Amino acid sequence: MAVLCVITTMGTAFYFITQNANPIDQQNWMSVNMARLNNALGSNREFAVARHDRSNVRMPAERILADLYTRQSADHFAAFASGYIYNALAIDVAPPSR
C-alpha cells in the first residue's frame, strides 16, 4: 500500500510539472542535459534550443553549454520542478497526524 501511495503521489507531481511548466524552459532543460551528456561522451551533436519568440535554434553541444540564456532557462525549469518533487516527497514521508 505504501508503494502505491508513493507512486501515485510522485506521478501526480510529474503530471503537474509537465502541465504547469513553461514549455520553453522545459525544452531547454532537456537540451542542456543532452548537451552535457554528448560533451562528456566526446560528441558535439546539435540540439534544438527554444527562444521566447517560440523559434527553435539548432546549436552544437558546446555552444549550448556556453549560452547563458539557455542555461538560465534550464535552471529556471529545474527550480520550478524541484518544488513539486519536494512537496510530493514531504507528503509521502511525513508521519500521519493524530
Report on the structure:
- The protein has 98 residues and is mainly α.
- 70% of the residues lie in helices and 10% in strands.
- The chain contains 4 helices and 2 strands; from the N terminus they run ααββαα.
- It has a two-stranded antiparallel sheet.
- The mean pLDDT is 84.
Radius of gyration equals: 17 Å
Sheet with most strands: strand arrangement: 1-2
Q: Helical residue percent?
A: over 70%
**What is the terminal separation in angstroms?**
20 Å
Overall 3D shape: elongated
Proportion of strand residues: 5-15%
- Which stretches of 5+ consecutive residues score pLDDT under 50? none
Category from helices, strands and their pairing: mainly alpha
Number of DSSP E strands: 2
Secondary-structure element series:
HHEEHH
Number of continuous helical runs:
4
Mean pLDDT: 84
Biggest sheet, open or closed, and with what strands and sense? 2 strands, antiparallel
